[in-house]
Amino acid sequence: MTPYNSENYRLIPDGLVYNEAFNELPAQTQLLFYKLIGCPEMNLLGIFKLRPLRAASIEFDMSEADLLEALHQLEKADFILYSEQTREVAITYWMGWGICKGGTPVIDGLKSAYMQLEDKGLALTVFDRMRDSNIEVKQGIKDAIRTALNDINTF
User: Fold this and answer.
1) 41 contacts 49 by C-beta, under 8 angstroms
2) Res. 39: pLDDT tops 80
3) pLDDT tens digits for range 6-35
4) Between vectors from CA 134 to CA 133 and to CA 140, what angle results, nearest 5°?
5) How far apart are CA 95 and CA 99, in angstroms?
6) Domains of the chain by residue range
7) Rounded to an integer, what distance in angstroms lies between the CA atom of residue 42 and that of residue 25?
8) How does DSSP classify residue 86?
């Protein structure tokens, strides 16, 4: 038996996908969501940049029209946010699951990930959802989010 190698797996919180809204999505859209949350380019904010549409459609084994439709279905169901201008995708509640127990390295990682975003409005929405969720977050992370929100509001 091969030993568990954490580099090859990303744990997915049950609450992220096992719910009624997810079950109502078409199978192709559900599969796309699993591929999105497994994307190695995703940062701590749960945001990453898709490749150009043609390349992304090949990568996800979907036509360009089906890919856009699936992205819009996921956005409508509140699983992702998608910026067509920057091609950035935000997994709506990913940050709440990924950083709730983090310390200084997580805070530094959040700041770094935020500074690399083209569409900082995605981060604003993710932060708002984080603030509205019932997930308990350490004070240092709350401060990092508050700092980023203040930075967004200066644009």
Assistant:
1) yes
2) yes
3) 455 566 666 667 788 888 999 999 999 988
4) 85
5) 6
6) 13-155
7) 23
8) T
Rounded CA-CA distance 101/142 in Å is 11
Within 8 A by CB and 6+ apart from 36, the residues are 42, 74, 80, 89, 91
Both structure tokens of 81: 């946010």
Task: Please give the full DSSP string across 121-151, using - where no structure is assigned.
Answer: HHHHHHHHHHHHS-----HHHHHHHHHHHHH
The number of residues in the chain equals 155
- What's the rounded Cα separation, in Å, for the pair 113 and 4? 28
Rounded distance between C-alpha atoms, residue 66 and residue 127, angstroms: 29
32 closest CA partner among 68, 78, 83, 84: 68
Q: Which fold has domain 13-155?
A: Arc Repressor Mutant, subunit A (1.10.10)
